[in-house]
Amino acid sequence: MAPGPAAPENCVFCEIAAGRAPAYKVYEDDQTVAFLDLFPITRGHLLVIPRRHGARLTDFGPEDQAALVRTLEKMCRRAERLTSDYNVGMNAGARAGQIVFHLHFHLIPRYDAGNPFQPSRRTRLTDEQAEAVVAELSAA
Question: What pTM value is reported for the model?
Fold first, then answer.
């Protein structure tokens, strides 16, 4: 892995990737990590990140991008254990809705006809909910 942009000291996703911050991890390998969003839009809402810091897809070369897409594809297959329908999205920049400036893809299982991009109140994931979903999605 080539070095990427320097990680800011307060990047929560860098801390999760390094194992220094808690997360409900579903998958991890040498280059990527997938974990549950703490404020999920739907049950099983995952974030897929590179271990290396960079805010945008364009901060990474083809090898790193390929590793991220391979993990995203694995997580899509696992999400199909919950439902056959899901959204995959990425926000690049503040005006696009990016809040954590570490590249991440959202994988959002869809259970009804609601619009996942329409603002709505999201509630915090409970430990019990997280543990149940992690158990469903973690097995290979």
Answer: 0.83
